[in-house]
Amino acid sequence: MLEEAGTLDELRDMLGLCTRCRLSEGRNKIVFGYGNPEARLMFVGEAPGKAEDAQGLPFVGPAGRLLDELLAGIGLARKDVYITNVVKCRPPGNRDPLPEETETCNPFLAGQIRLIRPSIVCQLGRIAASVMMKRSVQMTKMHGQRLIGPGYFNVPVFHPAAALRTPATRGLLVEDFANLKKYLDEDQAPPEPPSPEPEQMGLF
Ligand code: SF4
User: Fold this and answer.
1) Whose CA is nearest to atom 4 of ligand 1?
2) CA of 39 to the centre of ligand 1 (A)
3) Ligand 1 centre and the CA of 19: distance in Å?
4) Is the C-alpha dihedral spanning 131, 194, 142, 183 positive or negative?
5) Where in the sequence is the domain holding 189, given as residue range(s)?
6) How many domains are contained in the chain?
7) What is the C-alpha to C-alpha distance for residues 12 and 39, in angstroms, rounded to an integer?
8) Pairing verdict, β 120-123 and 147-148
9) Most informative mutation of 15, 18, 109 for ligand 1 (most atoms within 8 A of CB)
10) Cβ < 6 Å from ligand 1: which residues?
11) What is the CA(27)–ligand 1 centre distance, in A?
12) What's the CA-to-centroid distance between 103 and ligand 1, angstroms?
């Protein structure tokens, strides 16, 4: 049914006041996503936090301000990219989302990717990268690399919140955003999506 959505607005309407998983119990606002529906570069974080849950927008707290700075550093703004999370509701106490929660919410992220058709999906943090790539991602080894995904390239980077705690990580993020800019400028054709579409397969 979700594959019938032809626009992000239609997909958001299908989400409705979602109660498909128990994260619905503690949330204030669903954080669907924000940005350019035709973005070549899409960011996917782990889950909304307190500020995001209050405002219904992704990455609006301190980590979001750093994300804005990093984007500005490569000549981009939020309106140029699309930003979302693997789960659309805030986990209680900001705990990691559970596998059943990411799995239940997965079709909406897959739908966003199908409709936006980004050439690069940049995962912000280990959790988002591990969920989307379906394996344990060691960020220290894999950050900033361009990896083949199903119809797009994956580029995992450290979560901006980690960079707020550790100056060295901030330096790595700056380097990785420079890599993102380079990948965009190179404009390498993204890998072919699998058939059927990932959303129909329940895969990213
Ligand atoms: S996290 Fe996703 S599946 Fe769970 S209630 Fe929120 S929108 Fe629905």
Assistant:
1) 21
2) 24
3) 6
4) negative
5) 2-201
6) 1
7) 17
8) unpaired
9) 18
10) 15, 18-21, 23-24, 30, 87-89, 101, 104-105
11) 9
12) 10
Q: Report the nearest-CA residue for atom 6 of ligand 1.
A: 89
pTM for the predicted model, two decimal places: 0.94
Q: Taking CA 137 as the corner, what is the angle to CA 97 and CA 184, rounded to the nearest 5 degrees?
A: 100
| Tokens (6 digits) for 144 | 């900033």
Instruction: Determine the Cα–Cα distance for residues 126 and 137; give it in Å rounded to an integer.
Output: 6
63: CATH: 3.40.470.10
The tens place of each residue's pLDDT in the chain, 204 residues long, gives 888 999 999 999 999 999 999 999 999 999 999 999 999 999 999 999 999 999 999 999 999 999 999 999 999 999 999 999 999 999 999 999 999 999 999 999 999 999 999 999 999 999 999 999 999 999 999 999 999 999 999 999 999 999 999 999 999 999 999 999 999 999 888 888 877 555 544 444
Query: Whose structure tokens read 């994956």?
Result: 154
The type of residue at 194 is P
